[in-house]
Amino acid sequence: MDYRKLVETIPMAKREPLLNKLIDLILSSKNDEKMPTQLANVILLHWQSDILISESGLTALFEAAVLLEPDKTIEVFAQLELAGLAEQIKESVTKT
Amino acid sequence: MVKFGIEFVPRELYWKIIYYAIQAERGGFSNLWVTDHFNNRNVYVTLTVAAIYTNKIVFGPGVTNPYLVNPVFTAQAVATLNELAPGRVVLGMGAGDRTTLESVGVDMQKPLSAIQEAVDIFRKITGGESVVYKGEVFKVAGAKFLFKPKGRIPVYVGAQGPKMLELAGKIGDGVLINACHPKDVEYAVNCVKEGVRQAGKKFDEVDVVAYTSFSVHEDVKKAIKAAVRVVASIVAGSPSQVLERHGIDVKKAEEIRGALKANDWGRAFGAVTSEMIEAFSVCGTPDTCIERIALLLKCGISQFVVGSPIGFNVREAISLVSDKIIPYFKV
Question: Which CATH fold topology does B159-331 show?
Fold first, then answer.
């Protein structure tokens, strides 16, 4: 799944609520051991510069959310009425 | 003006703690404390990452103990951290807890001497001296760093009992008081004042810290739900005179202790009463927490530490403290 390409299709108005939901999902995940160190560091670097809302920041969060909580990530996208994206994540998760 | 600190337990992975640390720094917290227990992740590794990702927050172990980690080694770690974040590093040193020490076969012998000597050794060696020391607990035979430590590192002494509080006031640049209730904090501050007096210092030269178990949420039930786990273990570890001072049934406390030992969390947490929450945590809505912090300020504290569990949702709780509580005290 090309996370960056998917992020680029997310309407601007939905990015901030998505950002908040993904952060909460990642921070409260019980599967935190699944987080790759390099990805964690990318997220922290973006947070340190306060640019998590950027496309590269959202891409990192999106990837982390799918790795840690695939089903809940699908729910988040569905809640934000991003059904197309939710479907793509579902397909990708099912394949792996 | 009161400072706000925040405590993290490195049972969590580093990236979670660092996310929250960046958030806290941005939200107006001035101090970051990371606990040091052998059964969690390493405090200095966590603090090193914190040093890299933060810019101005002051940080340190809160607290390390000299029984498990020799003060010379603590000095080396803290002095190295101070090179990474000059002027932002402090040391929190306490005697530790007997149960944890016993589990690794270490006796908590002469805690007052141990702390006094450890602080002394720490200051000498981080001051660049070659240390020869013959204490009751520690002996050093000419130890000296092969690098030049940068600047003076403030030492905070963690204390609970009257004698240790007095010593902390006497030798510490700061005192970490492990208490939440104004009754306990007032008593502790008076002990600290006695130590300060003996040392011929001024009280406002010492950073007096209430290191609390804290839980905030707009929904008080959620705040309590988060606090219950931590309060249960505080109650289980408290001596009967402390429980009685707060009107807590000692038998209830024994019941909690037994349930925790048996890993029966439901029974342990179910036995926690509102009196216990009141005595051993600062817990509730932002307004309730403000009221309690204001009472602690009247007792003479200069730093308030938001300690574990922080809240039902840590990220949300840090935002509440940053947006509603800290601004109230900055006016």
Answer: TIM Barrel (3.20.20)
Interface of A with B (CB under 8 A): 23-24, 27-28, 32-33, 35, 40-41, 43-44, 47-48, 50
Residues in B closer than 8 angstroms to A28, CB to CB, are 313
- What is the residue-wise DSSP string for chain A? --HHHHHHTS-HHHHHHHHHHHHHHHHT-TTGGGS-HHHHHHHHHHHHTT-TTSHHHHHHHHHHHHHH-HHHHHHHHHHTT-HHHHHHHHHHHHH-
ipTM of the modeled complex: 0.96
| B53/A33 touch (CB, cutoff 8 Å), yes or no | no
- Can you give the pTM of this predicted structure? 0.95
Extents of the domains making up chain B: 159-331
B contacts of A50 (beta carbons < 8 Å):
26
Q: For B55, name the nearest residue in chain A, comparing CA atoms only.
A: A48
Minimal Cα–Cα distance from A40 to chain B, Å? 6
3-state secondary structure at position B1: coil
| Cβ-based neighbours of B267, under 8 Å, separated by 6 or more | B255, B259
Could you read off the pLDDT of B224-256 as tens digits, one per residue?
Answer: 999 999 999 999 888 888 898 899 999 999 999
- What distance in Å separates residue B260's CA from the closest CA in chain A? 22
Name beta bridge partners: B305. B5, B211
Per-residue pLDDT tens over the stretch B73-106: 999 999 999 999 999 999 999 998 877 888 899 9
β-strands B91-93, B131-134 pairing: unpaired
